[in-house]
């Protein structure tokens, strides 16, 4: 059983995670107009902390995660969300196969768990409709101390803006923009900034 499977039932009890998801959702609302005709993919959806905020503004969300237990918790939480079609998919994002095309891809704090970022952006481009968008939130570059329980399954200690910009443009994304949307404060005066990256597929 993975670490995420083990903690799924307690995951939502963290006020810090709840606050972060709310700030990321608010930043998405301010950055990207949403509509009931839209179909979104939430990769690394976990228990649905981000999806629940976006649910009332779109028509369909595919919640994708590698943890079955996280997705079970999402399905249990679903009854308290707004009106929206929600589909759960147990898969690695870079191996995700679909006949659908999405209007947007959203994510909160999952990209640093993906080893091959080039393959990730190639997948984004593959499953998005023309003019579709990405709104990806993750850590700004940090020193490897963010995860208090160790760095198993962590492939990146945050990201540099210019590196992500170049990768996005390499796979056909235009006008990538970045903004700091949340700050996680921990003990010993440690603070970790969370960015939102927004871009459009050509």
Describe this protein's structure.
Helix content is 28%, strand content 31%. By secondary structure, the chain is α/β, with parallel strands linked by helices. It has a 7-stranded mixed β-sheet. It is globular. The mean pLDDT is 95.
Keywords:
7 strands; seven-stranded mixed β-sheet; 6 helices; alpha/beta; single chain; 202 residues; 28% helix
Average residue pLDDT: 95
Helix count, per DSSP?
6
Query: Which bin fits the share of residues in helices?
Result: 25-40%
Structural class: alpha/beta
Radius of gyration: 16 Å
Question: Which strand-content bin applies to the residues?
Answer: 25-35%
Overall outline: globular
Q: Helix-strand pattern, N to C? A: HHEHEHEEHEHEE
How far apart lie the N and C ends? 40 Å
> Main sheet: which strands, in order across?
3-2-1-4-5-7-6
Number of strands: 7
Q: Give a quick account of the main beta sheet: strands, pairing sense, barrel closure.
A: 7 strands, mixed
Task: Show unreliable segments.
Answer: none
Brief overview, please?
The protein is of the alpha/beta class and about 200 residues long. Helix content is about 30%, strand content about 30%. Helix 4 links the parallel strand 2 and strand 3 (about 85-90).
């Amino acid at each position: 059983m993975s670490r995420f499977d083990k903690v799924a039932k307690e995951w939502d009890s963290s006020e810090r995670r709840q606050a972060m998801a709310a700030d990321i959702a608010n930043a998405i609302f301010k950055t990207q107009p949403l509509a009931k005709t839209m179909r979104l993919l939430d990769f690394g959806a976990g228990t649905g902390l981000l999806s629940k905020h976006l649910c009332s503004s779109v028509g369909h969300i595919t919640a994708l995660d590698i943890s079955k237990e996280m997705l079970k918790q999402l399905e249990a939480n679903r009854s308290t969300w707004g009106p929206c079609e929600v589909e759960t998919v147990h898969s690695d994002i870079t191996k995700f196969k679909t006949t659908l095309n999405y209007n947007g891809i959203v994510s909160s704090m999952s990209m640093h768990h993906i080893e091959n970022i080039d393959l990730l952006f190639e997948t984004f481009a593959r499953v998005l409709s023309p003019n579709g968008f990405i709104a990806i939130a993750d850590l700004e570059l940090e020193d490897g101390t963010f995860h208090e329980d160790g760095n198993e399954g962590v492939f990146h200690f945050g990201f540099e803006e210019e590196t992500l910009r170049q990768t996005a443009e390499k796979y056909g994304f235009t006008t990538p923009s970045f903004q700091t949307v949340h700050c996680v404060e921990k003990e010993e005066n440690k603070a970790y900034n969370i960015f939102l990256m927004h871009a459009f597929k050509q």
